[in-house]
Amino acid sequence: MLSKTDFIQFLNCPKSLWLMQRKPEVYPEGEFSEYAKKLAAEGYLVEDYVRQLVQGWPDAAAYSFQDVFETDEGLYARADMLRANEDGTVDIFEIKSSTSVKDSNPHNQLKDAAFQTIVATETGREVRNIFIVHLNKDYVRNGAIDPAGLLTFADETARVKGLLAETERQIADALGLLNEAAIDESSCSCLNLSRSHHCDSFDYFNPGIPKYSIYSLPRLSGKKLENFVSEGRFGLDQIELDEVTLLQQPIIQAHNAGAPYVDLADIENFISVLEYPLYFLDYETYASAIPIVDGTGPQEQLPFQFSLHVLHNDGRLNHFEYLVDQPEPPRRLVEALEGAIGATGSVVAWNKAFENTRNKEMAEAFPDKADFLVGLVERTVDLMDVFKTGYVDIRFNGSTSIKKVLPVVVPELSYEEMEIADGTAAMDGWNKMINEEDPEKRAQLRKALLAYCELDTLAMVRIFQFAETLIRDR
Ligand code: SF4
Q1: Mean pLDDT taken over the chain
Q2: Substitution site in 19, 186, 188 for ligand 1 pocket (most atoms within 8 Å of beta carbon)
Q3: Name one Pfam family in it (predicted).
């Protein structure tokens, strides 16, 4: 059987589809991530608004949802919405939680619709029009959701019909591949692509690649990667320093020396510009397809929580936190932050672009708070930068994520065993908390959210102190 999801997987990577279907026992099926679950749940929510909208139309009876088409050769499709037209034809509606029509990989929505159209046609329907229903990026919530304002019906009939011949060939190729008893499993095409493109099957198809390899080098150009691959040089010890950039060199040096690469001058440059007290700040945000508070639009990030550790130059450490327990614009969050952050002192974030973008958005939403929030942007430094070129341990494996750095430099602190242990789980946990009626469960979720966010900023404090110690003890 070839479903629409299988077909999209085939377009992204035929080998991974083959492995999943023909050798499920070795297919490294990752957990259906919290994020993927959230996306699926949002798709159903959007469909609910489409249903509400359509119910009010005079021809509502002509629409049906989740019709299934199945062909004898094993094609399977489920149409989000179908309209039975008076002339016997049907219109197909694909419902998406995106704010535009996606027409390229990894999730080409036009190909989705072309697949649906072909399967519907093969089961005897004549498809007249094809629509992608997506969210209107300009919609701003004001009171109850207005489905007519929220949704955009994009008539993609011409573009989808233009793809039918190509899609038919690709479906035939996919079915042909799935009939193959064996394929070349000795490598796969992601060898020539950076790590962000690799799926969970990379190690299966490329078992000889060392744990720390050319794929550990951040921002390696496609051309260089291809050269290294064509010469069979995968290990970091096979790469000369002058073949890579200044950002990539410390990773090779740390690997080859078997010890962390340390550039004390670089670390000192970072520390010397800091002004005490230091405010270690982290936001948690909720991004929902359907805006949950007035004044926001689809897929906008809504800050609902912050953790703030304040480190004074005499070593005192204070902690402030804020977590809202209902959906609301983040004005009270900003007020709480304003109460905790003084007029002077550096703000320290990890990956500061995220915090700064939220600060700029909130400055726009609350003009009376703009001076404070824009001031924060100007005062914010990025502790992550230290771990790009100042201190690099090969165990970071080329990443500067706090989740990779913390266990190496401050092993006594850990996200393991936490009920909420990453940003996506925090989003999900907050959504559950605000909708939870049982006070005990609500309190439990609140506690888990506070613990997670507090660890984020405490981790930054300890990592900073680790860097400071390197300078002090030199
Ligand atoms: S890593 Fe290999 S199997 Fe996975 S997507 Fe890339 S080419 Fe396909």
Answers
A1: 95
A2: 188
A3: DUF2779
